[in-house]
Design goal:
Elements: H1 2-7, E1 47-49, E2 58-61, E3 69-73, E4 79-84, E5 88-95, E6 98-105, E7 117-120, E8 125-128, E9 135-139, E10 144-151, E11 154-161, E12 164-171, H2 172-178, H3 201-207, E13 213-215, E14 223-227, E15 235-242, E16 248-254, E17 259-266, E18 269-276, E19 289-293, E20 297-302, E21 305-311, E22 314-322, E23 325-333, E24 336-343, H4 344-348, H5 364-375, H6 381-386, H7 396-410, H8 415-421, H9 428-436, E25 441-443, E26 447-449, E27 454-456, E28 472-476, E29 487-495, E30 498-506, E31 515-523, E32 528-530, E33 537-542
Helix pairs in contact: 5-7, 7-8
């Protein structure tokens, strides 16, 4: 993206705008992403595409107001798009004297009629310049693909093509079969009431190796009956689990039928039969998330009855809730695990840790807000430990990247994918440089951090970029702007000319004991500023590709 600023002095269009609404003060904001909002053009310098129309020429303009004509784009012209929003795109097109730079309405190159959705291709799929037109290349297996529109039997996507990106079209049937997220599809099953959606807690339980998870039924008394096979079509009245005494071993999970194969004790030894997954999981449809327990929390066989062990200083997987209890899976060593309950209040009362958002959802922005608000008042150890730092190291950048990563994991991203989008960083200058190299850092100032070896050039003004929830903010606390930023925060809410930030390592004390706080910044002429500290300004934002 940096190439854009070398090519012209015209003000750049923002890559995409997320419209968020929220209630001020301490109420939880109602976060909403505009369905037509464009995803960013990630790390490429530009994106190649053609106009939608095969027969009509397109007027090119010299400004974003689209009122000053400078040329004509033909249907045969391959375009290089440098920035785009719902109204207009800034691009170049071929002429007899070389490429020419201009603005055009976004509708010329896309219908932009669907909420943008990212997914990973599971097979190679041919792409086309237009819906049903000449082939344009292919989406390869493993490519990250963004869906942006549909037209008839074709779906428009953005996909990688070497060092750049392309926006082309694929057959909608091939998109659904080979690219669309599996999580959007529910398997056709015999017993729909017991069906398990992909990517949910049922899937997570199935991911553990055979016979590695121990648990009890959800009921602490009575019997749970087995079935003749995994389809759960025939109950066996002579085969059952005694809920009060039988410890179970999970052998396997069949997500298509909502069934689980369990090993349970009998007088003649352990027997393996099929049961309903809902017999042992409180909410098999929930999305699992990771939770770190930094103090001892006791576990229970059932919600509120009979202690089963404890967790302490370890990551566990949250898989559901039941009344005032949270169901988790945790390691007991030797490659074995337990699925049990902990008191939800024991999680929420932790003095020095982010409290898990139990009602997990797929909205990264909402997860960022929830986790950040829950983390207010915590100290640095969790974030230092996560980032591989000592208790003597500053943790503001580690905190911001931790919140972003946990929010993505709660939304269904794998840990590896989350870290590829928001890597672990302990230095503000280094993460700014990482995003700059991918065209995703918006700098309001020139600065040079000689210690880190990072030199930044101003590439945008305050009026040209609107911060998004989840953006990392590079903050200067002492107005020594040219020396580089010295603090990091993460944006958790946007309200016009005001943004709310969560910041770690603030206040009195040392790098371990300083706390997480929420702060409000206001839009100024040159920088976003903190009104309570005249020397504190935001000199730039990094925009992760959530």
């Amino acid at each position: 993206m940096m190439r854009l600023f070398k090519l012209s002095n015209v003000k750049r269009a923002v890559i995409f705008t997320i419209v968020m609404s929220f209630i001020v003060a301490f109420a939880k904001p109602a976060l909403r992403a505009d369905a037509s909002t464009w995803p960013a053009i990630t790390s490429s310098k530009y994106m190649k595409c053609f106009t939608i129309s095969t027969g009509n020429n397109t007027t090119a303009y010299s400004n974003s107001s689209l009122n000053s004509k400078i040329g004509t784009i033909y249907a045969s012209d391959e375009l290089y798009v440098y920035s785009i929003n719902d109204s207009y795109a800034y691009l170049s097109y071929p002429t007899s004297k070389g490429r020419k730079y201009a603005y055009i309405p976004t509708r010329v190159i896309t219908g932009n009629n669907q909420s943008h959705q990212s997914s990973v291709a599971r097979a190679r799929v041919t792409t086309y310049r237009r819906a049903g037109a000449i082939s344009y290349g292919y989406v390869d297996k493993g490519d990250n693909v963004m869906r942006v529109a549909s037209s008839g039997n074709y779906t428009q996507v953005i996909y990688p093509a070497g060092s750049v990106w392309k926006m082309g079209w694929v057959s909608t049937s091939e998109y659904n079969n080979s690219i669309a997220p599996v999580v959007d599809k529910q398997a056709t099953v015999v017993n729909n009431a017991n069906a398990v959606k992909a990517g949910t807690a049922g899937d997570k339980l199935a991911s553990y190796s055979s016979s590695s998870v121990r648990c009890y039924t959800l009921a602490s008394s009575g019997r749970v009956y087995a079935y003749s096979d995994e389809t759960l079509s025939n109950r066996l009245n002579n085969n059952y689990i005694d809920c009060a005494t039988d410890e179970l071993y999970v052998v396997s999970v069949n997500k298509n039928y909502g069934s689980v194969k369990l090993s349970y004790p009998t007088s003649a030894g352990r027997k393996i039969r099929d049961f309903r997954l809902s017999d042992i999981m409180s909410n098999q449809y929930s999305r699992p998330c990771t939770y770190y327990a930094n103090h001892r929390i006791y576990t229970y066989k059932w919600a509120g009855k009979s202690q089963y062990g404890y967790i302490e200083n370890e990551n566990v997987t949250v898989v559901g809730t039941l009344s005032n209890y949270t169901q988790i899976i945790y390691s007991i060593g030797g490659g074995k695990y337990k699925m049990a309950f902990i008191k939800t209040s024991d999680m929420n009362n932790q003095p020095a840790e982010v409290k898990a958002t139990v009602a997990v959802n797929g909205n990264v922005a909402a997860n960022i807000y929830n986790l950040a608000v829950a983390s207010v008042g915590t100290n640095g150890r969790t974030y230092q430990k996560w980032c591989g730092l000592s208790t003597k190291d500053p943790y503001c950048a580690a905190y911001a990247t931790y919140i972003a990563n946990q929010a993505m994991i709660q939304a269904g991203y794998s840990s590896a994918t989350a870290k590829s989008i928001v890597p672990k960083y302990a230095s503000t200058s280094l993460w700014a440089d990482w995003y700059r190299n991918r065209g995703r850092y918006y700098s309001y100032a020139d600065w040079n951090n000689k210690t880190r070896g990072v030199k930044m050039s101003k590439n945008v003004s305050v009026s040209d970029y609107t911060p998004k929830v989840g953006d990392l903010a590079a903050i200067d606390n002492n107005r020594d702007i040219y020396g580089g930023p010295d603090h990091t925060g993460i944006v958790i809410a946007v309200d016009g000319n005001k943004i709310t930030m969560a910041e770690g390592n603030t206040g009195a004390g040392n790098n371990l004991t300083r706390k997480v706080k929420l702060k409000t910044y206001y839009k100024g002429d040159n920088y976003w500023y903190l009104s309570s500290a005249s020397n504190t300004v935001i000199v730039g934002f990094g925009n992760p590709a959530y």
